[in-house]
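Task: encode each sequence below as structure tokens.

Item 1
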Amino acid sequence: MAEGWLRHLGDGRFAPFSAGTHPVGLNPDAVWAMKEVGIDISGHQSKHVNEFAGQPFDYVIIVCDRAKETCPIWPTAGTALHWSFEDPAAIAGSVDARRSMFRKIRDEIESRIMTFVA
């Protein structure tokens, strides 16, 4: 979702890449939540951070605590940031409960990205 927001709000000023420490595929609830606000991330792919090892980045932004604990060091990053968001995929329960959590996190990420691009 963060990559989708940065592509949408960054007005072409950023080339975001998204990866995880334990990628399991694109979450359908994330696709749904972003589509709800008019952003299509269905073409995004779940990638492992190792695919980007050694590449230079101006920023590396870690968006959950679990990833921060296992994320490799990025010596080629100009700035490393940690934004702590709950993992909405970790929520069990009804479709409505999961989607409610994805909406909440989607909106929190949007707010943080808006501040970042400003």
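Item 2
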Amino acid sequence: MQKLTAAYLLWHDFLNQLPRLTRYSLGAKIDSLFTETLELVLSARYASKDGKLTLINKAVVKFDALKFFLQILWQSKALDNKKYLRLSEALAEIGKIMGGWKKLF
């Protein structure tokens, strides 16, 4: 949860620097996916053992969509290489953690 929160805060700093049109379209989509993933992970922390797997699976799907749209943002040159690399490294680590959670349940 802490790493995901840190990645979101990093993203939030970058979001304000995006071109206006991109910030309110693709940027808003990515921001929404980030917050939805955070919400699902938080819910999974407090869910019963039976409900955890369902919530983790939903979080993984949102997280994969987030990475996909982030890559599109980078490919459209709205996000520079340095910022994309910083986010990608953080997200890769979070992806490994989420994959581990999925295997536990």
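Check on item 2: The first helix runs from residue 2 to 15. The chain has one domain: 2-104.
End of task.
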